[in-house]
């Protein structure tokens, strides 16, 4: 269990309350120093060998596979963004005219646009799941199923308010329909325990700069063997079989590296980014997502209770994550005005939809959440607002 804040492992300013990891994680001192060391290596490229192009990404794949309990690190690919991995997944699902692709209402755009394009290319149909009345997201998704459902493209938690999706139960329904389950793990992997052997997604894509606490400009994906013979988004030399032999690169081959390595983007072995991401994954494994989840719950429970008593709506913990939750603000208040008020008081959160999205992590403590709740209550208590 994490008993106290790990703020000392970061360089966050002491006069600010940063509760916005769902927007972007601050890199820790360890991750920062790993990046600096990698930059310094570039001063003299004679120290960089052919093996470094492969070892740097292999270390990241191994760490990520361990984090999500994947059996084979060769089922992990590296790209620049979530949209890249989602586009590769969409490209390799054989849709027929009239096939249906389920997405969520107000889902993050990078997990919607690739499916909209693929639907247009194949005359498939986008079906948007939206809870009606007292329906949960799980019920809304299941009610969106039809005999034509071919792909279900959802996150683990809704990015606007942290509402949980039961991926294990959903996966069983998807497999029964012989459909594909494509997961955006960006707002969950790193802060919430994820087991791909239990969930059995066909693909899961995750940005590196949020809950994985890595640098911007990278994403990492898990692929089931169902995609092992697919067509990648691009044809980069690193993804080809035997590319470790630099002297033989002009002996062109149609064969790819094993597993899902074909889905790597060109330049994926960027030495600075990989050094930082590898260190970030190592520190997440040490902190343990389950313990991060427990810690976030412990430091936020009292403030959530105070906000509920003041009339704000926040989902019960059983229905949401503890590292990301939404505070539903009554319609009579201007959400953007409240966000500006909080920013002027050096509190970083985000407005997403009709919610104030709060995203604590290990560098926060209970006082940060108390400062937030006190500021929200002060704002709404002021007749000027």
How would you describe the overall organization of this protein?
With 385 residues, the chain is of the alpha/beta class. The protein folds into 2 domains: 7-19 and 288-381, Alpha-Beta Complex (Aspartate Aminotransferase, domain 1); 31-286, Aspartate Aminotransferase, domain 2 (3-Layer(aba) Sandwich). The chain contains 11 helices and 12 strands. The chain has helices at residues 29-41, 52-68, 82-91, 113-122, 137-144, 167-176, 196-199, 271-287, 289-309, 335-344, 366-381, and strands at 17-18, 76-79, 100-104, 125-129, 149-155, 180-184, 203-207, 219-223, 325-328, 347-348, 350-352, 355-358. The protein has a 7-stranded mixed sheet, with helices on both faces. A 3-stranded antiparallel sheet has the order 9-12-11, covered by helices on one side. Strands 1-10 form a two-stranded parallel sheet. Helix 9 packs parallel to helix 11.
